[in-house]
Amino acid sequence: EKGTEKVAEVAFAIDDEHQNLGIGTILFEHLVTIAQNNGISKMVADVLLENKNMLKIFKHSGFKLHETIEHGEIHIVFGIGFLRAEGV
Q1: What is the value of pTM for the model shown?
Q2: Distance, CA of 21 to CA of 83 (rounded, Å)
Q3: Is 76 helix (H, G, I), strand (E, B) or coil?
Q4: Where are the alpha helices (DSSP H) in the chain?
Q5: pLDDT tens per residue across span 9-67
Q6: In a 3-state reduction of DSSP, which class is residue 56?
Q7: Do 7 and 1 touch, CB atoms closer than 8 A?
């Protein structure tokens, strides 16, 4: 929690055998819903540059992402206190 704003870190892993089946997207959507239902307004994540599948989940989430790159990782910050674009 940062000041009065509640912030949560999002991180999860999908084993190689189960990648590219939409499981990561479903997990992400559930984590965002749980966070929203618990008053969390912002989420953060650190993703390795080579983790293209995870980066794709964030890019297609419909949230406005703020990204910084450092030491081979992308630090992603995004607000979830508002509705995403329709169809996302």
Answers
A1: 0.82
A2: 25
A3: strand
A4: 23-37, 52-59
A5: 999 999 999 999 999 999 999 999 999 999 999 999 999 999 999 999 999 999 999 99
A6: helix
A7: yes
